[in-house]
Amino acid sequence: MSDTTDRPTTDSVDGLESDLAATYAVLAVCWREPSDRLVAVANEGELTPVVGDLDGVDPDDLRVEYTRLFIGPAGPPCPPYESVYRDGEDDAEFGPVEGPSTVAVRRWYRAFGVHPAPEYSDLPDHIAAELEFAAALADEGRVDRLEQFLDEHLRVWADTFLDRVEAETCEGFYAALARTTREVLLE
Amino acid sequence: MGDSEDVGRRDVLKAGGAAAALGLGGGGYLNALASGGDGASTATGLESFVGQNEVTQTVCSPNCRGKCPIDVHVRDGQIKKIEPHPPEDEQYKRACVLGLSHTQRVYDPTRLKYPMKRADWSPDEPNPTGRGPEAEFERISWDEALDLVADKMQSLKSEYGAESVLFHEGSGNYGQTGKSFKRLASLFGATQSAWGIDTNVGKGFNRITGHGAFLPPTNESEDWENANTIIVWGSDIFSSQFQMDASKVLDAVENGAKLVVVDPVYTTTASKADLWLPVKPGKDVYLILAMMHTVFEEETYDTDFLRSRTTAPALVRTDTGELLRAADVSVDGRDDQVVAIEDGEPVALEPETEGDYALFGEYTVDGVECVTSLTKLRDHAADHAPAAVAEKTGVDADNIRTAARWLATRGPGGIASSYALGRYTHGHIFGQAYAIMLAMTGDYGNHGNIHAHHPGGTTLAAGDWAAPSDVDPGPSLIFPEYPDAMIDGDPHEIRAVYSIESNMMGNQFPDRQRYQNAIENLEMYVVADMHHTDTVQQADIVLPVPHWFEQEDIISGWGSHPHLGYRHRVQEPLWETRDDYEAIRGLAERLGFGDRFPETKREMLRELASRDDAIDFETLYEQGTQRKETTPVVKYTDEFPTETGRIELYDDDAPSEEGVSFELPRPLEDRTADDHEQADEYPLMFMQKHSRFRIHSQYEMVNWSREINPEPQLDIHPRDAKARGIEDDEYVRVYNDRGEMVVKAKYNEAFQPGLVNTDQGWWARDFVEGHLNDLTHNETSDVGRCMAFYDVRVAVEPAPEDVDTSMYTEGNPKGSGAATPHTGGD
Fold it and tell me: In what order do the strands lie in the sheet with B362-365?
């Protein structure tokens, strides 16, 4: 699948594809651990298309909530990894990390000439990494491949994951982000 | 939040502005991914085909009796399968299903991933009351974490002294890291932890023989097939030690050995025995005295052994109760030598000498009236005839005699004593008693002798590396001393704890409420672990440790088998987990001791291995295991390391407790006593036995075992249950004056009336209410100084109507995903 010869140039990317890329790129950033910049941008109202109108975002609250939902140390209640939702033996249990789905995602990355960055310490099938890859596909105009990747991966597991986030979170930011992500991916 | 009307088409957002504000143009959105470069080469194993696995030999490493070498099969970069790998000496081949379940544990999504700090903790405002189930955490970098810990250690050192920092080490990772932990503690001058669990029996045994710390040494298990009688005392070897020791016991049985099991519980092991002695909890010393009585009565003691290797013939002064010394009377010999009668004449008793010494009788030496030690013991045993103790112990008198007869007359054998005896307050008396019993039967130093329910195994001898001789280490505290030190500064103040390899606040320590109160006095609580245990939830700083397959180490076979094993790394540590050694070395650098720690773990292991002449690092590394040939198979072949060089049957320098002095093994009970002051209020004894589903509280999160072992339960005899109106499978409240728990009652006739049990190893999140360690206590005996988990009384009643059992009764969640975050670690 490692065909890069017909990759469109940046010039040929039309507005739709740019918006598409921007959509996934912004979602990816929002699903990462919140940076100061993200909080600032949110408080400037620039994230309204993603999280609606929030009445101010507190950086500490956001970080603590992100940690609680996705990192731990307890749980976490919403592990943000594809394999956890796809590779379990029983729907009532979390599946493993580094499961067969993770291997498949790695294979997608490799086929398109990307790989987990050396300083990146999380797993390749983290929701933010997959969204980032979707942005990269969109950015390169590979809409057909983007659809295939979404069908094979994000659309398969995001629903369950987003359900858990919506059920668990007490921060408007993540409730709205989950809802918007569901709409973008699944509706 | 905005609704969809505001933002139009939802599969594409008007995200251009946000993207620009976030600086995502020109590939600025890339974070997790990088393009080009050597991407292809970083993906490992993607070209494997069916049947093509990479196999790494490594070692499973909890504190169990396995220390099993295993093969880890990796395909497509994933750990797919675990298999046993026979060690260098194949007769020690072993593995268990918990070890095979590492494919689940290594990829458990709830593993700890990043260093964390409790959100409301800071070095200057530690807010200790913010700890507990509601605590919130922030992710921090390793540098931040180590800076915070090192700075706080330094400031506590200047304010309260270095000993105000406690380095607590558990047993959850059987490698060499603990040595680096002790080394840093020694250099810094911190207080170090001293073991206060499962040391009771060994203390009593040691007083008599000079051997034993936890359980005494015993012949390596390859020799057990030579035993003709095995008395397994208080251990469910066939259930909790799997096949590693069970197979050796069965080898002996196949060779014709008699298997006796002494246990208040009808265990799996008891079900395979020739004779089961269902002793009542805490009555073991009465029982073994009755066995001695039989041996005296039937004169089946080993006369030669008693004369040559024990102080049985040593004279005891009738006036003072002290042993007669050669210097007290006109007998040639040193002042510390005891005196025996040989051919009617007093002689100084040398170690390991075969004289025709008088074993019994009264003698007058230089006007001093004496009796032999063995006479004293016989007189003591005379008060405990089988018929006299049968009712008290719950064991039929004939069966007591049969067990004693088998041990004394069927050739070599032994008593596979267990830690369970030491979980009663005065358990050291049993250690003393059975050391003497085996001396009477001559069961030391021969093939086929057994002295403990697990073999000795071997360790890496690293000399003074852990406690460098050029530094003055700080004091140590025995585990049960922690609360007083934290709360009252007795014997000195503890202001911070750094804990590795231990779920001390969940499973390993009793009286949970008291320990939770105690840690409120800490300004800093640093916990390193692989999983979110109850202890981690109490931490101020969490240091995430990789799975065993992600850290290399040298594994000792202590308590297991005579090999060392090399734990090769199977994969890189996931997330930002780091070997404890790296954290310890990082702290050492910050505290000014960096040059005392080799740069890498490998170098540290090489250094330690070079100190042990019986081990060659390269051989161990290449082979994966190396048998330590210097480990003797048969123990107790040399002179005993006691003052007399002999087993000391009568201890005239004995300690005492509660007015009972232990020159001879005199029974003393704590809460098991029938007339204990709480016997009416809390009539049931409460045990927390080890189960086949856990090694301490490790593997709690493994879904495979939770499928068949989903929740904690109270094993209760139907008679006890019905008397309280408790149905089978009904939730019950178990309580005493310290606390309570709510669990499901399970009718179980294996537990005698008056005794209830909840298997240990559950985390707080698994209980409907409370925790089993809300019931246990932290009181120890003066001699044993060992946590007495089984010496606990409780009452049981049906759970209140309004108890919420939905965690188990609705939807039946199981496994690590079952917990909501707020119940995680309390």
Answer: B315-317, B368-372, B362-365
Q: How far apart are CA B232 and CA B219, in angstroms?
A: 15
Taking each continuous run of H as one helix and of E as one strand, the counts in chain A are 10, 1
- Domains of chain B: which residue ranges? 116-188+470-554+572-627, 201-309+377-440, 671-823
Give the closest-approach CA distance of A26 to chain B in angstroms. Answer: 6
Q: State in words which class domain A15-186 has.
A: mainly alpha
Token pair for B422: 């030491």
Quick check: pTM over 0.80? yes
Least Cα distance to B276 among B285, B267, B284 occurs for B267
Q: Is the peptide bond before A73 cis (omega within 30 degrees of 0)?
A: yes
State how far the Cα of A59 lies from the Cα of B136, in Å rounded to an integer.
14
CB contact B815 to A (< 8 Å): yes
- Dihedral over Cα of B288, B289, B290, B292: its sign: positive
At residue B203, does pLDDT exceed 60? yes
**Which value, to the nearest 10 degrees, does the dihedral of the CA atoms of residues B778, B784, B786, B790 take?**
-70
Question: B201-309+377-440, what's its fold?
Answer: Dimethylsulfoxide Reductase; domain 2 (3.40.228)
Quote the distance between the C-alpha of residue B282 and its chain's center: 20
- Give the sign of the dihedral formed by CA A159, CA A164, CA A165, CA A170: positive
- Closest chain B residue to A45 measured between Cα atoms? B18
Q: What is the CATH number of domain B116-188+470-554+572-627?
A: 3.40.50.740
Beta strands in B135-176 (DSSP E): 137-139, 165-169
CB pair distance less than 8 Å for A132 and B31: yes
**Residues in chain A, total:** 187
Question: Domain spans of chain A?
Answer: 15-186
Contact B566, B59 (CB under 8 A): yes
Specify the CATH class of B671-823 in words: mainly beta
For helices A100-111 and A127-139, what crossing angle results, to 10°?
30
Distance CA B337, CA B826 (A): 57
Nearest to B415 by CA among B206, B197, B224, B198: B224
The β-bridge relationship of strands B191-194 and B476-478 is parallel
Q: How many Å lie between the alpha carbon of A153 and the closest alpha carbon of chain B?
A: 16
Through-space distance between the first and last CA atoms of chain A, rounded to whole angstroms: 28
Query: Which whole-number Å values give the CA distances from B771 to B46, B430, B479, B733, B764, in the listed order?
Result: 46, 29, 20, 11, 6
The CA-atom distances, in angstroms, between B211 and each of B39, B57, B562, B662, B797 are 59, 35, 18, 18, 45
Kindly report, residue by residue over B268-307, the tens digit of the pLDDT.
999 999 999 999 999 999 999 999 999 999 999 999 999 9
Q: How far is A94 from chain B (nearest CA, A)?
A: 6
Higher pLDDT, B116 or A11: B116
Cβ of B110 within 8 Å of Cβ of A76? The answer is: yes
> Containing H/E element for B371?
strand B368-372
From chain B, pick out residues whose CB is under 8 angstroms from the CB of A41. Answer: 18, 21-22
Chain A environment of B23 (Cβ under 8 Å): 37
Tens of pLDDT, residue by residue over A80-125, are 999 999 999 877 789 999 999 999 999 999 999 999 999 999 999 9
pLDDT of B320 reads 96
Residues whose CB is less than 8 angstroms from the CB of residue B713 and which lie 6 or more positions away in sequence, other chains included: B743, B744, B745, B746, B758, B759
Residues B186-205 as b/e (b if ≥16 CB within 10 A, e otherwise) read bbbbbbbbebbbbbbbbbbb
CB B663 within 8 A of CB B650: yes
For residue B213, the tally of other CB atoms under 10 A from its CB is 13
Dihedral (CA of B345, B346, B350, B356) sign = positive
Strands B275-277 and B258-262: parallel
First-to-last C-alpha distance (Å) of chain B: 34
